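[Discussion] Sanity-checking designs against the backbone

I'm trying to build intuition for which residues belong where. Below is a structure token string of 206 positions. I'd appreciate it if someone posts a full sequence so I can compare it with mine line by line.
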């Protein structure tokens, strides 16, 4: 699979031969959906708490007499049927939202995403990304000259200048290969990988 190698101006200088085992797979929509949903579900903390009818702060006095009023029978105002009453099946803080995804499935899903990005022309390779000073303006101008706005940059080494310069750019994310998650790969319009990071990705997903 040939992937474009971009120069400093964002133009295609040449092509890089990437392995078909990672960048030449078929598009598996069901697998990608499962991997993305599992990743988002596993990020949930599951700390929401709701009160049942025993825990809500209400009086236990009967609201009105049992018969003769013409209204429905009511025992106490903490009933789940009443406004402000307790929940019938409340959420508990120990609720587990995790989805199990095997390593083989996860790697296959990431490879399927990378393959589709390469086919759509949204994936590119660069030699390296260096910023001379920790200035957001410098990185913004560099990415603008390359025609990159919403971009995920995967580099093998994030130095202090690059990290500080990218923090205030809302549509730019710079990560190392081990932190390239499937949600970010799907979310950003462009994916840029440095040459050394590409070698690490091939090693991780081989």
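Best answer:
Here's mine. Compare freely.
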């Amino acid at each position: 699979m040939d992937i474009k190698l971009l120069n400093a101006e964002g133009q295609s200088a040449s092509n890089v031969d990437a392995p078909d085992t990672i960048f030449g797979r078929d598009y598996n929509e069901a697998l990608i959906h499962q991997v993305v949903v599992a990743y988002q579900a596993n990020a949930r903390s599951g700390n929401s708490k709701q009160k049942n009818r025993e825990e809500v702060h209400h009086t236990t006095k009967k609201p009105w007499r049992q018969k003769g009023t013409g209204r429905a029978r009511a025992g106490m105002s903490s009933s789940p049927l009443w406004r402000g009453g307790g929940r019938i099946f409340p959420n508990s803080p120990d609720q587990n939202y995790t989805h199990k995804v095997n390593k083989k499935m996860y790697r296959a899903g990431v490879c399927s995403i990378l393959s589709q990005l390469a086919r759509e022309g949204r994936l590119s390779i660069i030699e390296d990304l260096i910023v001379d000073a920790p200035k957001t303006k410098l990185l913004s101008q560099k990415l603008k000259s390359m025609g990159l706005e919403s971009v995920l940059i995967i580099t093998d080494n994030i130095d202090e200048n690059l990290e500080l310069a990218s923090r205030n750019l809302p549509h730019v994310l710079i990560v190392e290969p081990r932190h390239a998650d499937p949600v970010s790969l799907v979310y950003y319009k462009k994916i840029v990988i440095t040459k050394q990071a590409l070698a690490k990705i091939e090693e991780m997903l081989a």
